[in-house]
Automatic annotation (TrEMBL):
<feature type="domain" description="PAC">
    <location>
        <begin position="245"/>
        <end position="296"/>
    </location>
</feature>
<dbReference type="InterPro" id="IPR035965">
    <property type="entry name" value="PAS-like_dom_sf"/>
</dbReference>
<dbReference type="InterPro" id="IPR001633">
    <property type="entry name" value="EAL_dom"/>
</dbReference>
<dbReference type="InterPro" id="IPR052155">
    <property type="entry name" value="Biofilm_reg_signaling"/>
</dbReference>
<dbReference type="InterPro" id="IPR000014">
    <property type="entry name" value="PAS"/>
</dbReference>
<dbReference type="InterPro" id="IPR035919">
    <property type="entry name" value="EAL_sf"/>
</dbReference>
<feature type="domain" description="PAC">
    <location>
        <begin position="117"/>
        <end position="168"/>
    </location>
</feature>
<dbReference type="Pfam" id="PF08448">
    <property type="entry name" value="PAS_4"/>
</dbReference>
<dbReference type="InterPro" id="IPR043128">
    <property type="entry name" value="Rev_trsase/Diguanyl_cyclase"/>
</dbReference>
<dbReference type="Pfam" id="PF00563">
    <property type="entry name" value="EAL"/>
</dbReference>
<dbReference type="Pfam" id="PF00989">
    <property type="entry name" value="PAS"/>
</dbReference>
<feature type="domain" description="EAL">
    <location>
        <begin position="475"/>
        <end position="729"/>
    </location>
</feature>
<dbReference type="Pfam" id="PF00990">
    <property type="entry name" value="GGDEF"/>
</dbReference>
<dbReference type="InterPro" id="IPR013656">
    <property type="entry name" value="PAS_4"/>
</dbReference>
<dbReference type="InterPro" id="IPR001610">
    <property type="entry name" value="PAC"/>
</dbReference>
<feature type="domain" description="GGDEF">
    <location>
        <begin position="328"/>
        <end position="466"/>
    </location>
</feature>
<dbReference type="InterPro" id="IPR013767">
    <property type="entry name" value="PAS_fold"/>
</dbReference>
């Protein structure tokens, strides 16, 4: 049974169980492998999802029919729809037809060729219209039985916007560079080959962009003398990458004309591009011309084109220094036209300017190229002649020869506004042999010599000598003392008696004197002319007038002295002041002086200018009782025409005629004529300078009834005059 059982039951069971166990083991191992694969796939999927979330790109799996199999994106805003809504749908269902067709062509080409393809496109997404850069690659396996591709899409919207902004900026920049009106922009590469040429460069240099591009910059705009230097600068800049400093330079235009520019450079080097240099040139020709004009105006006279005082000083300093080193003498000619003011007054300043220009031309044409001819001021010219002989006499002979030549050239007639005009000049010469001589001193010496030529009769030449300097120094010192004397009240009035035919004192002339603290009484002949020239005659004359009027006012209160007339000298400059009448009337009111006892003494020289104005002033004062006496009659410009018009009350015969009446028939005749003339015009006549009784008798016999001179008294202090009047003398 056992055998039978084993044969029938146990043996088959054992065989079947063994097989079943083997099959079960195989099944269990398959299940285990499947589970392991599923876990690996899950892990891979998880990793893919993590990777897809980590990368910024959109990851799509599309089959050959354009169906979305997988849609992975960290930001669904970059999708055209939600990912869950896209899976299983075709491209043509969600995209515009033209765009879907393009993507399908790309998928087919990728599957056909097996190569990766790239594409840039623009798409309407959930967040707006975005730009993408896509890469398409075959998946290499079937998906649902169909070939598929992997599509990676990166959002490049910001980059595109930045590129667009950069392009716009570049366009604006290029437009600005191209059209900027005042800056020429020149771009060039190594060797100076031009790569950029804007419109301002076309206007500045005259070349069009077509003419300039491809040519070497130095050959185009550099003067021949600068061409090599410019080429060397360009090579050095490209070799070192350091630009040369901005600077002013003179280049040339297409027509060869020079042009001044301010030039600066910029070095530009971009990755993958050859380095490029940009030159920015600004036209400064107008500024340079203005600077040149300003410099010319600063150093040259606008009317004649000659050097002015500033340039003269520089050249004279240079000439003195060079002459001192070489042991040679320099001559300085100071030239002043004679009677130029008369020409200006009679013919006008325009004609005077014509003369000055002709004088400048003649002087320039008479000297050497190395000599300097300058216009100092007005009609004053200076000629500097360096390099004369070392010996003083030889140098003087050379200077005299040149001076005589200049005088001769200036005497030649000239045409002024269609009229022939003859003129002359006075020239002073200073010879200088030391560099230590100051320019001012040199000009002063020549100026003093010129005035000596004027005093010698004009149209001549004189040399400076030390005696002239001493006289000028004394004059300058005296002028300073004169100013101090006015401040310190060093002046006083003396009174010289005036008598009638019987010798009775009828009045006096107030005469100013200067009591100098060191030099004593300074003669009027020495300080009055200087006061006239310096303008100090105005405050001095006002003091004399006020002092004399106050004295007459005090006499007015005295029964004996109140009958005296008082004569007061008035200088021409004082008389021509606009407020002279108002000032005299104010002094009469303030002092209380009697205008009927006042005579203002005028000289004939005062009447040389504007007789009508003088007559008007005299009549205005005459209307208030003041009288006028014409002093030194016969010594100046005597004219019966104006004499009969002047509201005079007295004529004074000059002492030069009075002194000669006894020994010179001419002087006697003149004295008699003046007396007769005064009588015929109804004027009183007074003889000055009567020193002897014989003089008095002669004048008295011929009708003169008033006298003044040493015979009756010298100028005396006030107390002495009053005492003499009271004594009845």
């Amino acid at each position: 049974m056992a055998r039978h059982f084993n044969a029938l039951v146990a043996q088959p069971f054992l065989i079947a169980f063994t097989l079943a166990t083997a099959v079960l083991g195989l099944l269990l191992r398959d299940i285990e492998e499947r589970l392991s694969t599923e876990r690996a796939l899950a892990d891979t999927a998880a990793r893919l999802r993590a990777i897809s979330r980590a990368i910024p790109d959109v990851l799509l799996v599309l089959d050959s029919e354009g169906r979305y199999v997988e849609v992975l994106s960290r930001d669904e805003g970059t999708l055209i729809a939600r990912a869950s809504d896209l899976v299983g749908r075709r491209l043509h269902e969600v995209l515009p037809p033209e765009q879907a067709d393009g993507f399908m062509d790309l998928i087919r080409e990728t599957l056909r060729s097996g190569r990766t393809h790239s594409i840039e496109y623009e798409m309407q997404t959930r967040s707006g219209r975005n730009h993408f850069e896509g890469r398409v690659q075959a998946l290499g396996t079937l998906v649902n039985g169909l070939p598929a591709v992997v599509f990676l899409a990166r959002d490049i919207t910001e980059r595109k916007q930045a590129e667009g902004a950069l392009r716009e900026s570049e366009l604006r920049f290029r437009s600005v560079l191209l059209n900027i009106p005042s800056i020429a922009v020149l771009g060039y590469r190594a060797g100076g080959v031009l790569s950029y040429w804007n419109r301002a460069a076309e206007r500045l240099y005259g070349y069009t962009a077509e003419e300039a591009m491809g040519r070497r910059l130095p050959d185009l705009i550099a003067p021949s003398a600068l061409r090599g230097l410019m080429g060397a600068d360009i090579d050095r800049m490209f070799a070192t990458g350091r630009v040369i400093a901005a600077r002013e330079t003179r280049l040339r235009r297409k027509d060869g004309a020079p042009v001044d520019v301010f030039s600066s450079h910029a070095f530009v080097e971009l990755p993958g591009q050859p380095p490029e240099m940009f030159c920015f040139d600004v036209d400064i020709s107008d500024r340079k011309a203005a600077e040149e004009e300003a410099r010319h105006l600063a150093f040259y006279d606008a009317l004649t084109g000659l050097p002015n005082r500033r340039l003269l000083v520089e050249r004279l300093q240079q000439a003195l220094a060079e002459g001192s080193r070489a042991g040679l003498i320099t001559a300085v000619f100071f030239l002043d036209l004679d009677d130029f003011k008369t020409l200006n007054d009679t013919r006008g300043h325009e004609v005077g300017d014509q003369l000055l220009r002709q004088v400048a031309g003649r002087l320039r044409g008479s000297v050497r190229e190395r000599d300097t001819v300058a216009r100092l001021s007005g009609d004053a010219f200076v000629v500097v002649v360096p390099g004369l002989s070392a010996g003083a006499q030889a140098a003087a002979d050379q200077a005299r020869a040149l001076g005589e030549l200049l005088l001769a050239r200036l005497r030649e007639p000239c045409d002024l506004a269609g009229h022939e005009y003859h003129f002359s000049a006075s020239i002073g010469v200073a010879l200088l042999d030391r560099a230590a001589e100051s320019v001012d001193e040199a000009l002063k010496q020549a100026d003093m010599a010129m005035y000596r030529a004027k005093d010698a009769g004009r149209d001549t030449l004189r040399f400076f000598d030390p005696d002239m300097q001493q006289a000028v120094t004394r004059r300058a010192t005296l002028e300073a003392d004169l100013r101090a004397g006015l401040r310190q009240e060093q002046f006083l009035l003396l009174y010289q008696p005036q008598v009638d035919g019987e010798g009775r004192i009828t009045g006096a002339e107030a005469l100013v004197r200067w009591q100098h603290p060191e030099h004593g009484l300074v003669p009027p002949s020495e300080f009055i002319p200087m006061a006239e020239e310096s303008g100090l005659i105005l405050p001095l004359g006002n003091w004399v007038m006020e002092t004399a009027l106050r004295q007459q006012a005090r006499w007015r209160e005295d029964p004996v002295l109140g009958r005296l007339d008082l004569s007061i000298n008035v200088s021409p400059r004082q008389f021509r002041q606009d407020d002279f009448v108002a000032r005299i009337l104010a002094l009469l009111r303030d002092t209380g002086a009697d205008p009927a006892r006042i005579k203002l003494e005028l000289t004939e020289s005062l009447l040389l200018h504007s007789v009508d104005s003088a007559i008007e002033t005299m009549r205005a004062l005459r209307a208030h009782g003041l009288g006028f006496s014409l002093d030194d009659f016969g010594t100046g410009y005597s004219s019966l025409n104006y004499l009969k018009r002047l509201p005079l009350s007295q004529i004074k015969i000059d002492q030069s005629f009075v002194c000669g009446v006894l020994r010179d028939p001419s002087d006697a005749a003149i004295a008699r004529s003046i007396i007769a003339l005064a009588d015929s015009l109804g004027l009183d006549v007074l003889a000055e300078g009567v020193e002897t009784e014989a003089h008095r008798r002669f004048l008295l016999e011929h009708g003169c009834q008033a006298f003044q001179g040493f015979l009756f008294g010298r100028p005396m202090p006030l107390e002495a005059l009053e005492r003499q009047v009271r004594q009845g003398r």
